[in-house]
Amino acid sequence: MDIGFIVEYIPLYVEAAKLTLGIGLIGIALSLIVGLLIAFIQYFKIPILRQMATGYIELSRNTPLLVQLFFLYFGLPKVGIRISSEGCAIIGLCFLGGSYMAEAFRSGMESVEKGQEESAFALGFRKSQVVRYVILPQALSVSIPALCANMIFLIKETSVFSVVALADLMYVAKDLIGLYYKTDEALLMLVIAYLIILLPISIVAAILERRIRYAGFGN
Amino acid sequence: MLTIRDVRKSFQENEVLKGVSIEVEKGDVVVILGPSGSGKTTLLRSINFLERADSGTLDWEDIHLDLKHASRKDVALIRKKTAFVFQNYNLFKNKTALENVMEGLTVARKVPKKEAEKIAKEALDKVGLSERYDYYPSQLSGGQQQRVGIARAVAVNPDIILFDEPTSALDPELVGEVLNVIKTLAKEGTTMIVVTHEIKFAQEVANKVVFMDGGFVVEEGSANEIFNHPKEERTQQFLRRILPDYDYAI
Q1: What percent of chain A has a predicted confidence (pLDDT) above 90?
Q2: Any alpha helices (H) in chain A, and if so which ranges?
């Protein structure tokens, strides 16, 4: 193990980690928005949009991110649409994550008992008010574990971004291996870098889960 | 005040209401009795559109509606004039007792928060829960939860309160506290329709009793008429079964 080598190339990993995290977070934020929109479309049973949402979810969940990225990066230019590497990465992550987030939101919303909705209707709530004041607050506490798991999953998925020429962590590690044959060192640093990014997120997620699960329900 | 005519409702093949009509005057306490599956609850739920009837009309002062085709606006109007107390309370699980009672005011009726809080506290005081404002439903007994449910109904100052078997989910020793609250409301002149199996309670507070069976109204009349001089064979049978010491004179 060449400690000198590791120390020398730490800054490269730091840069790559920033990129991984930056694109990961933007992608997660967008997929949360997409997921919530889709969950609403399904909850309100909006015609046409609802069928499109189902189609999207199936397409997104049953194709690998790698293939989705290939399509965006190599396929679309053939029809004249050119998107930057970062753009492809963010769109790809959002396309993949949106469906997972939608399913997490939907399962939360479906877990809210029918009676909760009925008593809100009986009090004169409009459907949108039922969602805002009754369904969502209760659904979120159920959805949080799944949402957190999806976030971690999405950050790990960023490891395929190197195929669209983004210098993420995986890219840097492969680069170093290719250039210097320092496989052990490069991979060790790769694992540590992912752990440094993901462990804090896991811990925060666990705390959040506990907080939200027990907050507001009095038990 | 409120007249419902010829309500019909089927669930798939099963026709639950086969043309039911009832009339409610201001100050009435209407008790609907009948065996399970007779359509009592469905009738009650059709009044505030928790269940969409297949046909029937609703007349309420100057409102005249077709139950099947009522618009969203009409539904909202009727729901704001009524309040519903559920068999299993259906309190908002993530809200305290006080918030549960306030919600119908602040969200659905746009009452300012301060005022809503005042009204909600008064309503909770009335049902004897002044010590429980900040408790969550899971921290309350069934009887207390149902009293919050009643406070929630009272707070919005409805013209009619609809009670759907308000004590059926309660432990026997908790039934009394809930019935007492309903009795107090009845004495104050609150108009209400109560679906219940509590015959003693019905005898005490009802000024009008409707006996339903198999999707029809079999017999209706004053409490005295129904309990002491039932005309229909089916009513007599039902009362005999439910009141072991029942003796009637025709």
Answers
A1: 74
A2: 3-43, 49-61, 65-70, 85-111, 114-122, 127-129, 136-157, 169-180, 183-214
Q: Which of B93, B111, B141, B148 should be substituted to probe chain A, the one whose Cβ sees the most A Cβ atoms within 10 Å?
A: B93
Short-list B40, B38, B64, CA closest to B51: B40
Q: What is the mean pLDDT of chain B?
A: 91
- Residue A21 domain-assigned (yes or no): yes
B/e letters for B116-152, b = 16+ CB within 10 Å, e = fewer, are bbebbbebbebbbbeebbebbbeebebbbbbbbbbbb
> What is the side-by-side strand order in the sheet with B160-164?
B82-85, B160-164, B192-195, B29-33, B208-213, B216-221
Range with the poorest average pLDDT among A100-104, A118-122, A208-212, B5-9: A208-212
Give the alpha-carbon dihedral of A133, A139, A140, A145, to 10 degrees: 170
**Euclidean distance between CA atoms A67 and A69, whole angstroms:** 5
Whether A181 is covered by a domain: the verdict is yes
Largest alpha-carbon pair distance within chain A? 71
For B:125-154, CB contacts with A below 8 A are 135-139, 152
List chain B residues with CB under 8 Å of A143.
Answer: none
Strands B2-11 and B14-24, how do they pair?
Answer: antiparallel
Q: Which residues pair with B216 in a beta bridge?
A: B213
Do B9 and B17 meet the contact criterion of CB atoms below 8 Å apart?
Answer: yes
Domain residues for the domain of A180 are 3-214
The span from the CA of B161 to the CA of B163, in Å, is 6
Number of A/B CB contacts below 8 angstroms equals 72
The reply to whether A98 falls in a domain is yes
Residue A219 domain flag: no
- Number of compact structural domains in chain A: 1
Q: A128: domain CATH number? A: 1.10.3720.10
CA distance B89 to B81: 20
* Contact with chain A for residue B96, Cβ under 8 A: yes
d(CA B225, CA A121): 36
**In this predicted model, what pLDDT tens digit does every residue of A25-52 receive, in sequence order?**
999 999 999 999 999 999 889 999 999 9
Among A145, A159, A161, smallest CA distance to A202 is for A145
Check B96 against A217: CB less than 8 A apart: no
How far apart CA B224 and CA A132 sit, in angstroms, is 48
Is B183 part of the contact surface with chain A (CB cutoff 8 Å)?
Answer: no
ipTM, two decimals: 0.91
Q: What is the mean pLDDT of residues A173-187?
A: 91
Q: Taking 70 as the threshold, does the pLDDT of residue B190 lie above it?
A: yes
